[in-house]
Backbone:
């Protein structure tokens, strides 16, 4: 009886987390559309994007991707899959790749814009918090990979 209550609470917590992540995704899509409108205005005015436009668009796209992957993990756990499943480990690795792609593409695109002969005040944004997020996601991948290995070994013993 007590285990059912705990798992019921866990399912409710996962459901709340799922809807919270859905709300974040919807708000991120709205923010992307707004920033995209600003980027179009920059293109009309200057003929190309600004560094701030590029960094904002890439950041919001990465947030959407990571949020969707976290939601996949939450839905897996809600459906009864153990947290230290191999799929969750792969999701953290994919999140790290998304953040890495964001950092790389944003930096390269901004560098290309920075060295153009544009008629506006150029800026270059490099986000250290993205690198920190990348390291955290890689560490989480390693932890969940090790946890899934331990879980597989324990299941073989039982």
Residues:
């Amino acid at each position: 009886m007590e285990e059912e209550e705990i798992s019921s609470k866990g399912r409710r917590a996962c459901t709340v987390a799922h809807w919270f992540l859905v709300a974040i995704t919807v708000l991120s899509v709205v923010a992307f559309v707004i920033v995209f409108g600003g980027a179009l205005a920059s293109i009309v005015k200057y003929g190309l994007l600004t560094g701030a436009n590029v960094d904002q668009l890439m950041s919001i796209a990465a947030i959407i991707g990571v949020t969707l992957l976290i939601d996949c993990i939450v839905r897996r756990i809600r459906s009864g899959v153990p947290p230290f499943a191999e799929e969750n480990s792969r999701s953290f690795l994919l999140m790290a790749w998304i953040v890495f792609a964001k950092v790389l593409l944003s930096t390269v695109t901004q560098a290309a814009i920075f060295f153009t002969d544009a008629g506006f005040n150029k800026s270059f944004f490099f986000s250290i918090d993205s690198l920190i997020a990348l390291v955290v996601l890689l560490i989480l991948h390693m932890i969940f990979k090790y946890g899934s290995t331990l879980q597989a070994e324990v299941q073989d013993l039982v």
Notes: The CA atoms of residues 47 and 122 lie 13 Å apart. The chain is about 85% helix and 0% strand. Residues 1-5 have pLDDT under 50 and may be disordered.
